[in-house]
Structures are given as C-alpha cells and as structure tokens.
Amino acid sequence: MTKLTKRAAVYVLGCKVNQHEAEAIKQLFKDAGYEIVPFKDWADVYIIHTCTVTHLGDRKSRQMIRRAHRNNIDAIIAVTGCYAQTAPEEISGIEGVDLIIGSKERRRIVELVEKIDKTTTVSLVSPRKELREFEDLPATSASTARAFLKIQEGCQQFCTYCIIPYARGPVRSRLLKDAVSAAGQLVGQGFKEIVLTGIHIGAYGQEIDKLNLAVLLKELVKVPGLKRLRVSSVDPNEINEELLDILTEEPVICPHYHIPLQSGSDTILNKMHRPYDTETYGRLARSIRIKRPNAAITSDVMVGFPGETDEYFKETMDFIRDVKFADLHVFKYSPRKGTPAANYPNQVAAPIKDLRSKEIINLGQELWRRYASQFINRPKEVLVEQKMGNCWEGHTDNYLKLRFEGPEDLRGKFVEVIPIEVKKDYIAARLKGGVVSE
Ligand code: SF4
C-alpha cells in the first residue's frame, strides 16, 4: 500500500527576515517528505509564521490561525514567529492551536509537529535571556540567481518604539567560518548573488571576541565564484571608517546601501533612542557618494512617532529631499505594549499618520523616479532572475529592477541591457549584447 504524502501549508507575515525563515520552514517540511500546498487548501499541518511589529500584525496573525482551523478542523496548527514569542498566552486561547514555538526550537519544528497528540496545546517559548545561540535554519533563495544568507539574529538596542528586542532576544551571530562555508555552498549551488540578512546586521559579531561585520565581509568577498554580495541593512552609527571602506571599495559588494533613518528630526531621533543625528547621517551619505557616486542609498522612515509635530515632520521631509534617497520604505508608528514609546504623551492621531505616510510615500516615489532616470540609455549589467509574462526581470547591482525581452535561456545569467523608460516600479529596457557572464 502506498503511503499518502502529508501536506503542509505555511503563511507568513511581516519583514524580509520572516519571509526568509518561512521559506526555511517550508524547506524543513519538504526535506521530511511533506508536500507544500497553498494556505487556502486542505492540509495536514498549518504553520503561521507571525509578526508583531504593529497591532495589525497581531490581528492578521490571529485571523490566519482561525482560517487554518476552518480549512481543516483536524489539522495540526503550529504558530511561530515574533507574536508567538511575545504573546503565547493570547495564542493558546485561540481554538485549534496545537503548538506555539518562540524564537528558539524552530529547527525542530517537523519533529515537534509529529509528536503532537492534540490533547493539549504545547508551548515552547523560552524567556529572552535563554535565547543565546544562533539558530541555523536552511538558506533560502529569492530566485535561482539570488540567495539569502542569515548571519545574525536578535537585537539589544531597544529603540523606544520597537518590540523586536523582546520578540527576537539578544544578538546572536553565525560563526565566521560557518557563514563563509554557507556562502561557498550557495555559490556551489549556482547562486550568483548572496543577500546577507538579519535583524540587526550592524551588530553582527558583537557577542564574539574580535568579530564584526567588517571582518565577515572581508572574508566573504574572497569566496571563489561569488559575483555579488548585498548587505540588506545597516544602521548609520554602525558604519565606521573600516566598514565604509569595505562597503564602497570591494567590487563584489553591491553599491546599494539600505540605511534606516526613521526620522529626519533630531528631537524625534533622540526620543526614539536612535544613536545618531541627522548630521552624522548626512555626512555618511556624502562619504558614500564621494566613493561611489551612483550608489543607491535607500532607507526606512517612520511617521507619527509620539510628539512628531508638523514642524518635526517637515524636518523629516526636508532631510529626505536633501539626502536624495533612491527609495524609501515608510511605516506608520504603532504603539506596542511593553515598549516605552507606547506610554509617551502626544500620541499622533491616525488620520494625521495616514496623511504624513502618503506624503512621504509620494516623495519616495518621486525620488525613485529621479534616481532611476539618470540610468536611462546607459548600459547596465543585470542578473536575470525570472520571467514576467514575455519579459525577463532582474536587478542591477544598485537594485534597479529592469524588464526586457530576450531569448529563452537567460535565467541566472548576467546580461547587458539599455534602460529605456522609467515605469511605476521598474525600468523597461532592451537587451544590448549577449550574455556577459554565466
Ligand atoms: S535597532 Fe532598533 S529598530 Fe532595529 S530591531 Fe533593534 S530595537 Fe528595533
């Protein structure tokens, strides 16, 4: 008699690190012989990889747990991620939940799921102080060309608005030799670009003697065959001279720097406990542009932090215009229970947050178009990632998304293209010559 393949479905909310972890969880189930099915389908196991960065993350996480229970009342439901770590008692009250896994033990998820007997809800959530080791989940890929390599977990900066240090625990870093060997394996599997991810990458190695991000990058750029290394995000105060030199001088490292700003008002930055001011940030942006004039500097900005007046908001808009970011991710402040800012006076009303958010999004789009326009008619190298209808799509080293028509066999190759026209969120281009490199 043939054994029926078990089906697992994974739903993920939240940031890029969560997306990466959800892919890694899928891989663990696939390796154990499960078929991965869409979340709306019938499955034996549902995993909800939750987010708690805003109250909307919490709410959506609860909705998806309920939806899983409706999809199959007998299914095993496992809840992982940041909301699971910070509010296990809330989650255990939701009908159908069998297993709650915090920021540890995710590697054992298949084994834990298979032990569930459905008589009680099992909660495996370690207190923050016990989150000490870097958890090595499998590496994942964005396409056949780009892979994500998580090098770091946790944060202990405790910005006053942020729940992450409570949800993810303190900084734990992947050992240098493990990171280098994982990168070598990814290149061996054919990946051309590696994107380094983590919760607070600039803090990489701070708990290990003589280790930091600069040391790691110096080793990673030597991995034979690695064509591109992209650092997903580093805080401005963490880019010292040594790191700046590596980031801007090593040809393998992409000229794309995502440096969270959060606010362009020094008063607000101070209240957020962000350890830099706009002068430091501006100086850093200028230094990057001296060394790599066409680099993309992108950022995260938060609107509506408590006490953000019209005047402070204007300072942010002005600063963003001055720096001329290539792209922005905009977030509305959301009070999180247990963080200091949730109790600050002068909370900003929701309609004002909405207005400010729209204004900054519009400014970000204008700046993106301006940044992208300077590359029109200038040949650029693209790493081809996927087909979108009739077109190929890929990114340049400075993270411009380009689409162009071309022959069938371009996936995973570097080609030279001519950008022709800036569209809403990509650039239409045409293939110039053939393949530049395999
Ligand atoms: S650095 Fe600040 S914003 Fe970033 S994860 Fe840590 S506490 Fe949150």
Topology at a glance:
Elements: E1 7-12, H1 16-31, E2 35-36, E3 45-50, H2 55-71, E4 76-81, H3 82-86, H4 88-92, E5 97-101, H5 109-115, E6 122-124, E7 140-141, E8 146-150, E9 152-153, H6 164-168, E10 172-173, H7 176-188, E11 193-197, H8 213-220, E12 228-231, H9 241-249, E13 256-258, H10 266-272, H11 278-291, E14 296-303, H12 310-323, E15 327-332, H13 350-373, E16 380-388, E17 391-395, E18 401-404, E19 414-422, E20 427-437
Parallel strand pairs: 1-2, 1-3, 3-4, 4-5, 5-6, 8-11, 11-12, 13-14, 14-15, 18-20
Antiparallel strand pairs: 7-8, 9-10, 16-17, 16-19, 17-18, 19-20
The chain binds iron/sulfur cluster.
Give a quick precis of the structure.
With 438 residues, the chain is α/β, with parallel strands linked by helices.
**Basic shape:** globular
Tally of strands = 20
| Total number of helices | 13
User: How big is the Rg?
Assistant: 22 Å
Structural domains: how many: 4
Overall helicity = 25-40%
**For this structure, what is the CATH class of the largest domain?**
Alpha Beta
Q: Examine the secondary-structure arrangement and name the CATH architecture of the largest domain.
A: 3-Layer(aba) Sandwich
Look at the structure and give the mean pLDDT: 94
Which structural class is indicated by helix and strand composition? alpha/beta
Strand order of the largest sheet: 2-1-3-4-5-6
- Name the hetero compounds present: iron/sulfur cluster
Q: Which stretches of 5+ consecutive residues score pLDDT under 50?
A: none
CATH fold name of the largest domain: Rossmann fold
Which superfamily, in CATH terms, is the homologous superfamily of the largest domain? Methylthiotransferase, N-terminal domain
The biggest beta sheet, please? Answer: 6 strands, parallel
In terms of DSSP E residues, the strand content is 15-25%
Euclidean distance between termini CA atoms: 46 Å
